[in-house]
Fold each of these.
Amino acid sequence: MRVIGQRVRHVDWRAVTSGAASYADDVAHPGALVGGVLRSPHPHARIVSISTRRARAVPGVHAVLTAADVPDRTYLDYRAPDQDRRMLAADVVRHIGEPVALVAAETAGALAAALAALDVRYAPLPAPTTVEAALSPRAAVLHPDRGETNVASTVTRVLGIDPDQAPPGGHRVKRRYRSSYQSHVTMEPHTVVAHWRADEQRLHVWAPSQNPRLIQRDLAQLFGLEVPAVHLHELTVGGDFGGRTQISSTEALVCALSIATGRPVKLRQSRAEEFAFTKYRVPWDVTLEAACDVDGRVTTLRADFDIDNGAYNQAAPGEMAYGATALASSYRWRGYRADGRCVYTAKTPSSSFRGAGGYAVTWALECAVDELAERAGWDPIDFRLRNAVADPGEVSLTGWQVRSSALAECLETVRREIDWDRRRQQGGPGTGRGVGVACTIHVTALARDYMLRSSGALDIDADGRVHLRFGCGDAGTGQKTILCQAVAESLGIDPGRVSIEATDTDRTPPDAGAGASRGSFVSVSAARTLAADARARLTEVAAAKLHVPPGDVRWDGGDASAGPDTISLGDLAVLAAGDEPAFTVESTWVGDSHDPAPDGHEDIAPTYSFAAHAVEVEVDEATGVVRVLRVVAAHDSGTVLNPLSARGQVEGGVVMGMGAVLSESLVFEGGRVVNPSYVDYDVPRAAESPDITTCFLGDGDPVGPFGAKGLGEIPLLAIGPAVTNAISHAIGVRLDAAPHTPDQVLAAIRERDGRSLRTGSVGRSPKRWWIHAMRWLYPRGLHATLRRWGPRLAPPVPPTVIRELAVPDSEQDALARLAAGARPLGGGTDLLARETQGLPVPELLVDLTAVGGLAQVREEDGALRIGGAVTLADLAGHPAADAVLRATAGSIATPQIRNAATVAGNLCQAKRCWFFRNGFDCYKRGGATRPCYAVLGDHRFHHAVDDGHRCQAVTPSDLATPLLALDATVAVRSARGDRVLAVADLYDGPGETVLAPDELVTAIEVPATARERTTVARRLALWQGAFAVASVAVSARAPESGVVADLRVVLGGVAPTPRRIPVIEQALEGRRYDARAVERACVAWERGTHPLAGNHWKVFATSGLVRAALDELYGGAR
Amino acid sequence: MRSVLDVNGEQHELDLRGAERLLDVLRDRLGLTGAKSACRQGECGACTVLVDQRPVLACVTPAAVVRGAVTTVEGVAEAAEPLRQAFADEGGFQCGFCTPGQIMRALALLAESSAEEIADGGTVRAALAGNVCRCTGYAGIVRALQRCAPNQDQEATDV
């Protein structure tokens, strides 16, 4: 093959890398209105009334729509019996963020004013926001019309012998696994433009999706239009991963606004909405009981699971049915039973996500199999080789028939490439290292009629250029490129002569888009068929022209010849086109399909792919931080159509799957997402991405086009359990709840060592007793009372906008403006973030970076003076600055932030509590009548473990910690005069300073005496550049002597303000440095803390940081 | 406030409102849609542009405080040709939404780093921490950057 198997560039590379590619928000639509959605603030409530009168009266508003104004139809979504979702809530809202009303307006300002003027009255109802609560016999039923409980659907599978009746003996493991709430986080926030053209009676839509036809079909149905009356336009798609493969809520809402106004309307979703109100991966809570006989052969598998559906049915019921089958399809089980429930909860619905149905079950199963192997005394790779469904011709208990498989080769390859035997032996508890493995089978498409059907069209012009038209979409996977390759290969031409469009529904024939890893099989089959049809037609034309029988026509480089005569492809196309403008062929490929088997026993896909991954991890036993060092990914996806895009699918899938087990999960509080931002939801970044070795094995599949099988999803399936198994090897404890954040890992390590997971004490301080009493009262009604009555006692603080930004011409000018009411602006990186977050911001600002003298670093008599407007990047690179300050400044946030953010801005930035930042109307946002959401909510990372007060947040400045250890002072100036503060005295609350509104920080000064000491800093962050969970700085005189002298131990992120820790300092001061004394001092400090219920781990992790920092400081002395 | 903004070598006289963001000025007023709006709070890097050759986040930069020369991806299409090809040849992008930001970040990094620093995967990865990519797993981006050191291997076939 000449083109298949070649590294061909992504067809859109020029447009993408030049910034010219047009995404939904980049398309200009003259006269477009801006659309907006009013969303439910309640997880479950009856809508008492909606008044749109005031909103309609806002100047510039063109439409205000409620459920009464839009068609009363349910979305088609995934499966007919499940349909329960409407465009706008009419009587009842069932999750926070459910669309209630819509506005289209001339400007963003008018839109905001109209949304604020909509008057909706709700009667809140009890809201079961977790699966556990929803299954309680007393739970409010979310859909009383669909049943008496919150169980949306169930599944049962019984295949082979009954696991409960299995003969005794052998080995058995049982464990409950809980997968994470992973968000798709497409880089492009969902933006849709719609334009209803009354003159054409057509709806024009620009909507990013990997499956434009499904969007078209659902929109037509919702608005009672014929399918061709909905026209989806060509568009570059900024990622999908299954999140946009079916209609979300945005598309129909913006169409409704355009139909109501007759104008083009654009609706942009903010990043916070993207996280909080779009689909997320279906979370599984699955208990597996797996058994094998004494010879290490698997026998039976028992599975019980509940999956979190959210408030409406989208993909979850179908995913459950699929997953229930997939569970028993990868090993040679002799008996299997599964019972599952898909449960409604008052949250945004979960839905399809790359690897759908297979992701969570494979993770749980591969962890269980690993544990079973260990129990039976087998090496994890050997156990898999012995038991996996892997032989061509083999049929799984569930009916899946293997057509080609290189799984054994994959397992042997990862064993060799990761140096398994040696690392397995060298790693383990106490070494900080571990290796793990996992393998899997995965479907290539599903054997359903809608999925095994693809049409394409091909045009050839007079120059012999081939243009393809497919309706499959391409969200970046390289789908378009491999279709071009398939046609180029089949026609024997250079791929540079083939172009493609893949979305426009007027111009392309139908295709079921990306899903179930079908693209490289189904759409490529269609492309090959299309090229063959074109070749057959052109052969006839050539034969007629050359006066030979068709069988005598030879093809070379796209040209036809017979004897000495040759006709070029372009000339043939002209001949074949006749009176038409171009030669065009359209054809449809249809595979063998069948209806779902009721018992789950069926050959569910045309063929199956295989993969094995091995992973090496490093675990810091002192903090619980896990780092993936290396991944070896071996895949059998048949023939690799394009090694460039195939490798990208594996590498991207590995990192995305790693995220799902290590760091990514939406956190909910009362049904509201707590972490809807890139800072708080930890998508893996480059710094966390491991070294990945990708290997493709296998000779090609007998049924796949060119021998190809699916690839897009399977990398995610194998990586997750391989990571979990590697951590288990490293720490000697099996983890079973994803993601494995440091709190979980550290708790597992301490439990392993028989050490307590709790610490702290109330002590004798009356203030602590008061705080303790408050915390006790929170779950006993105080939280609910404040939450319910607080807003009635005092209205929420409205967001403000920055009206004026002054650039001063001198320091005097700046001080005068501050005195007149303006507030200082440093880099602006936090201030503008706060504006986006809807937090109050000053209306008048004065740009301090314009004041020359404030941006200098200089040494004077041994002291270091850092101007307030010095950027973190400049401090990090300044030769005069102390190493610890350079290192700390260089570790804060990201390079781009460091180029703008200033030292004074870093010290004075507001708290990073995720409730405060992300829209919770808390004590610090709404005032004294509001609760602190951290007390009962998730406070594992960024809240105080000591001396928290009404607000549990901490001061986020990482720079303050070493500055405090260096006895630094802050020079402050206002029109009223100068003053100098110790850094220790700068704060009077979490991220709150004692500075008066008109004061500015002119400089930070580190005294010469402190600079003679040695200072070391350490931080614990969830990703490199994240705000520190805890930071430590230790500073002492002449540590090389081995005797502790003039010691400072400073902690940041553990108490509302950074502080020195006298209990540790005094225990060590004046003595010879001794690790045991440090350990004792740290434990003494731990016992004196006052953590919240869920952040005791942070006390221990901070202790770990202190020990590591002191070890570094005194390392040279030993 | 009236202000003059130098973008890709062109001077633009603008009447800026309050803390109007550089990103909005570029996209909405100047029609330069290469820099993307993906978070509007300085957390993802999709809006990365250069100000006096240093990468900054246009979404949290008030346009009024920009005193240097702004360079966007549209301004480097030719200068960055080898880097763009390297992104294409090494799988440095898939959906492409983060790519303009990645390219601008990468250009600054290549300009300010030694060959040894670029050869070190760990250093490059750390330097890219401000640019989130959800598609590639970063490996292709790192390779693309490293390929832009001299004497690298041949390109893939161009479609």
Amino acid sequence: MSSDVSNLVEIRDLHFAYGKRAILSGLQMDFPRGKVIAVMGGSGSGKTTVLRLIGGQLRPQRGHVKVHGQIVHQLNTSGLYLLRRKMGMLFQHGALFTDLTVFENVAFPLREHTDLPEELIRNLVLMKLHAVGLRNAAKLKPGEISGGMARRVALARSIALDPELIMYDEPFAGLDPISMGVTANLIRNLNTALGSTTVLVSHDVKECFAIADYVYFLSQGKIVAHGTPDEMMVSTDPYVKQFVNAEADGPVPFHYPGKSLADDLGLGAQA
Amino acid sequence: MRIRNGLSRLGATLRDFIESIGYGARTFLNVLSVSPGLLKRPRLIVEQLHFIGNYSMLIITLSGLFVGMVLGLQGYYTLNKYGAEQSLGLLVALGLSRELGPVITALLFAGRAGTSLTAEIGLMKAGEQLSAMEMMAVNPIQRVLAPRFWAGVISVPLLASVFSAVGVFGGYLVGVQLIGVDNGAFWSQMQDGVDIWKDIYNGFAKSVVFGIAITFIALYQGYEAQPTPEDVARATTRTVVISSLMIWWLDFMMTALMFSK
């Protein structure tokens, strides 16, 4: 994979570990401008770590992440903050500011980064909230709305500054089927309306395949498969087959690696 | 082998301790370096003054009143033995302005506001609010820690002043109104014996130092807590323990510096 200007984000030979525990090893990924790219994989496969490396919240041990042609981990604090102004991120549980109302949460990035008059901020916030269907919930506190609504408010907040790159960390986790469908449509529609690039980290096959242009499958910190959703649906790769068809048996072991049950029960020697 | 393991553990503990001091010092300098930015947005500090200072007022006022009343009683019993009960006002005022006002206010502040600051920051971290802020290109040290820090630094000396003033009134209630010490002697001895610089100013300076220490300890503990319920709880406890010990140590050092001849 060579460097390409049509890619907003490029990941090359990325290695990351927490202490001695390797999380990602040798990752190569491309995120073309204007596309919805899904990063899928089981829990603990390193999906969220990829997002944190793109956002510069973690530093890789080897390799690099390039956003807008800039190597993220080489930027100084002000450079990183400038780059982050072009990014929006939806956290898994929304990460709304619990002491602020829904309106103030969405207004937060606008007030921090612009000198817009309050009247204009109000109109912008109401438009963003209207886009996620929560204009009439503007005065409520995060504690007064459901998990699905909180996710939508966080979505409105993450697009407040019309970012070029929007990252979603498990946007469908814990949502009811209706909220899941609503959120999936919002992600696709916002991507089209804003012309932004979307990185969607999830393990929900149906929703991801419905809205993604391209899919990467991660397992144990490595890319095990990638392609369009249609290609993945007919993939013969054992991991993809297990994941897409939700099979209990396959390359992903059910048990955490370690000693066998016989060893733990002291039956190994007798057997 | 056992000695070697013990030495190795001791070395690791010492290294962790030095590392945490270094990291704490760096965070403290970070808070100071981003503080000028707050001059453009004083509203952030005013909001925190309300939450941290104003909400601590009731406990400080009531404690000040009772401490002053107890000081009045105890002082009278002791002074009366030497026929010096006329100096009760002076004793109450000196005790409060030099020591009890700053120290008890600081201890109460650590318990009332310090713990809430640690828990608030720790829970913000656990709820990924600080990470979200970073991803929105907003520095959480500037937006969250610095306003709270300065609000604490401003609040503690003001609360200590209220504590001492109410305490003197408590001493007056017990000494003059209840026991019958001469009203004129109570106030005139106080006026004559309390030095504005040596007593009031030094007491105020102590409060400022306590305010810096407690507020920073509380914020740092919350900021460095692991994002789990257990560690946030442990960090809250650490805030009270470390702040209290720091208050006693600083008080001893400052008293030795300020009041030694």
